[in-house]
Amino acid sequence: MTDMLSPDELHARLQAIGDERYHIHHPFHRLLHGGKLTKPQVQAWALNRYYYQASIPRKDATVLARLPTAELRREWRRRLVDHDGDGTAPGGIERWLALTDGLGLDRDYVVSLEGLLPGTRFAVDAYVAFVRDRTLLEAVASSLTEMFSPNIISQRVAGMLKNYDFVSETTLAYFTPRLTQAPVDVAFALDYVKRVPRTRAEQEQVLGALRFKCDLLWAQLDALHFAYVEPGLPPPGAFRP
Ligand SMILES: O=C(O)c1cc(C(=O)O)c2c(n1)C(=O)C(=O)c1cc(C(=O)O)[nH]c1-2
User: What class of enzyme is it (predicted)?
Assistant: First the structure.
């Protein structure tokens, strides 16, 4: 195989993958922040994305269990607290439910996952399976979409506040801490994927993991778009506005 990439070259390739494939380019994202969706369509987005939120700590617990040293586990367990809370301060899952509440969705219904799109379920479950079944390097690398999340979050929050009267800074409060938490996550993961690979093939695994992760975020918005925008065919059992 060809030569190893320098850390800067690897970083540039990761950035290029995000520039091309991150879900910031998905038509559904543009409709969402552009104010082009109805309230029921925004409800469908929040309901489905709840499953991503609820599964992130399952994913991180899976990675955590595979990390070989106390130092690495200490670093990774912060992610679990970010999403699950610590019993006193609410975590990301709880804050996401404040959004679904604010959109008028029944909490028990959201948490039951009954109305979930199959496409959401398959994409999210694929993330948890990926970090379980692939190398640890790939598992860590798959979190690197967070390099691009502050950008999409800023765009989404600003657009939604401007364009919808049914959301507020309070209901969108989930996103505020992510703007500072994501760069902390990324600093560690990026350093890890630059430091650990010993071969070009391993570096290619890192790039492949990021592509996979971009694809699973994309697939979630595809499922929403197909079911609730165009052609607008929610599968049997899925949330119906
Ligand atoms: O709002 C978004 O578009 C977005 C994207 C991503 C991402 O890129 O995976 C995450 C989040 N949000 C997020 O809130 C979050 O907690 C998160 C954790 C992770 C991860 O892979 O560990 N990604 C993301």
Answer: oxidoreductase
